[in-house]
């Protein structure tokens, strides 16, 4: 059964407390928080005050995805904000090995995200240090995009790499995930499904979460 991490970017920010209450009481597993700086990606999302407000009511782990330049600058900040997982982009991290160990030393689990054009083979030497591999199935920056079909093949390659290196890495998929493609993603090797519009845009969020988990 897959873990489900609803993307708060798709929540209603005028009633964010209500959406957090729903997530706390649902069968979803994590809070997925997308932090965008307008530089690494062409969009700006929300910052530390919003994360702090969510953390103050959250009863489930915070899965923080940094879509920002020089993410190492904010490792301790997000540790202090209560993040359990902190994911940085391969494309944004010049010294990725050092950054991953700094995340772990700050008491969090370390994640690496790959843009659609970035091959998983680039992680061959460090996959054993990665707790969470986030495979982007859309180009990062905006919600509601169409799913990139090559993602299935990329997940399969990632799973083979993880097994070959005897790593314990979880594979997370983010972008265009819904009840129609969840089964195929899990069959390819995905462990965690991030879904935004598919959950928060539904009239029955709980049913969507259950379908995603049991696909």
From TrEMBL:
User: What is annotated as the active site?
Assistant: 34, 174
Q: Name one GO biological process term.
A: pentose-phosphate shunt
User: Which PROSITE patterns does the record cross-reference, listed alphabetically?
Assistant: RIBUL_P_3_EPIMER_2
EC no.?
A: 5.1.3.1
- InterPro entries under this entry? Aldolase_TIM, Ribul_P_3_epim, Ribul_P_3_epim-like, RibuloseP-bd_barrel
So which domain of life are we looking at? Bacteria
**What sort of enzyme, by top EC class, is this?**
isomerase
Recorded protein name is Ribulose-phosphate 3-epimerase
Necessary cofactors: Zn(2+); Mn(2+); a divalent metal cation; Co(2+)
Q: Does the keyword Zinc apply?
A: yes
Taxonomic source organism: Candidatus Ornithobacterium hominis
Q: Where, in this chain's numbering, is substrate bound?
A: 7, 65, 141-144, 174-176, 196-197
Q: Which SUPFAM superfamilies match?
A: Ribulose-phoshate binding barrel (SSF51366)
What HAMAP family does the record tag this protein with?
RPE
């Amino acid at each position: 059964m897959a873990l489900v991490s609803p993307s708060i970017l798709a929540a209603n920010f005028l009633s964010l407390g209500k959406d957090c209450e729903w997530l706390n009481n649902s069968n979803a597993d994590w809070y997925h928080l997308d932090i965008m700086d307008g530089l690494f990606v062409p969009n700006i999302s929300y910052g530390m005050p919003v994360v702090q407000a969510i953390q103050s009511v959250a009863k489930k782990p915070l899965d923080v995805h940094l879509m920002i330049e020089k993410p190492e600058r904010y490792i301790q900040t997000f540790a202090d904000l209560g993040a359990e997982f902190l994911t940085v982009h391969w494309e944004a991290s010049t010294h990725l090995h050092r950054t991953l160990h700094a995340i772990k030393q700050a008491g969090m689990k370390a994640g690496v995200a790959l843009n659609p054009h970035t091959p998983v083979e680039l992680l061959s030497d460090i996959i054993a240090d990665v707790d969470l591999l986030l495979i982007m199935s859309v180009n990062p920056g905006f919600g509601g995009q169409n799913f990139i079909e090559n993602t299935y093949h990329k997940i399969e390659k990632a799973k083979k790499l993880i097994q070959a290196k005897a790593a314990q890495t979880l594979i997370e998929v983010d972008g265009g995930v819904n009840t129609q493609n969840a089964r195929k993603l899990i069959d390819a090797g995905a462990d965690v499904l991030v879904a935004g519009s598919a959950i928060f845009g539904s009239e029955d969020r709980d049913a969507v979460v259950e379908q995603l988990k049991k696909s």
